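Here is one chain, start to finish.
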Amino acid sequence: MRRVLFSPSWLLRHALALFMIALFARLGWWQWEKGQSSRGTLQNLFYGVEWPVFAGAVVFGWWQMLREELHPSPAKEAVPRDTPPEIRPFDAVERSDGERPGRLQLAGSDASTGSDASTGSDPSDDHLTDKEDEEELASYNRYLASLHERDARSRPGAR
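Its structure:
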């Protein structure tokens, strides 16, 4: 425990926490005194209360970091073991030969051929989707161009 608390990084954290606590306490005292003076306002008094609250937040954060460093919480499992392979992320699915897949594959697909056993689809059909995407993008760009032309006509001083 001492080795952790007196390591260089923790000594810096302790010093920073003490500095911030002292600074916030001093600022709170200054605002409180200013609020009680003849030129002080209620706002100064509220700030005088607020700065010690900030110091308390520093103490709380320092305590949480210290507690986590000394008693780390157990790491949570990203994907529960009982999750069916159909809905697990591709990097958590292992193939039958024990290897993890190098690319996204759907459950039931054959990684060697690239075909999907459940639908019989072939990756060579992807060019149809690409053509449809290109047509949709071109249509959207034409729409944006027409909006730009309409906007340019409605403002005579615009370029």
